[in-house]
Amino acid sequence: MSEPGALRMRLALLGREVAKFGVVGGLGVLVNLAVFNLLRHTTELPMVRASLVATVVAIAFNYVGFRYFTYRDRDKSGRTKEMTLFLLFSIVGLVIENGVLYAATYGLGWNGSLASNFFKFFGIGLGTLFRFWSYRTWVFRALPAKEAVQTAESFLEQAEPVPSPRRAGRPQPDRV
């Protein structure tokens, strides 16, 4: 495969990965916002605590979606390590997401329903950028064998054809 063809293939694979991540993430956002608003309107939890609970519920939902849909073809051998890294990076995303809401609510005093949902959504967006990078880089790593096969295939496709050993050294008939 030519270099432009290989690049197109890699971009297509990345596009599918981003789309699958987006589907799971989009559903996770809906879960997050639904739980957040349900807790805000039916309990006496302070806003940021309600947001933290909603984020934890969404993290659990997203793990199942990422493991069994988005990254189902990735290495499954080290589940304990995978879950530990997933939780670690999810906690960093949780801090990013809820840090934005905390700053808007307690730093700027914007705690109305519309403002809290806006800053919750904005924080989710920032946290999602971090999560996408960290999950694909560290948590749901591609299988080494698959990478090796792709590298070998691209190497073989770039190599020039070698004459077969049967024909080497034998005179070839003239064709007119």
UniProtKB/TrEMBL annotation:
Record's keyword annotation contains Transmembrane: yes
Membrane topology reported for the UniProt record: Multi-pass membrane protein
GO term, biological process aspect, one: polysaccharide biosynthetic process
Family membership noted in the UniProt record: Belongs to the GtrA family.
UniProt-recorded name of the protein: Membrane protein
Record's subcellular location: Membrane
Location of the region described as Disordered in the Swiss-Prot/TrEMBL record: 156-176
Cellular component annotations (GO), alphabetically ordered: plasma membrane
Superkingdom of origin: Bacteria
Keywords annotated in UniProt: Membrane, Transmembrane, Transmembrane helix
Regions crossing the membrane: 21-39, 45-64, 85-108, 114-133
Stored InterPro entries: GtrA_CellWall_Glycosyl (IPR051401), GtrA_DPMS_TM (IPR007267)
Keyword Isomerase: no
Domain GtrA/DPMS transmembrane: 20-140
Organism ancestry: Bacteria, Bacillati, Actinomycetota, Actinomycetes, Kitasatosporales
Organism, scientific name: Streptomyces filamentosus (Streptomyces roseosporus)
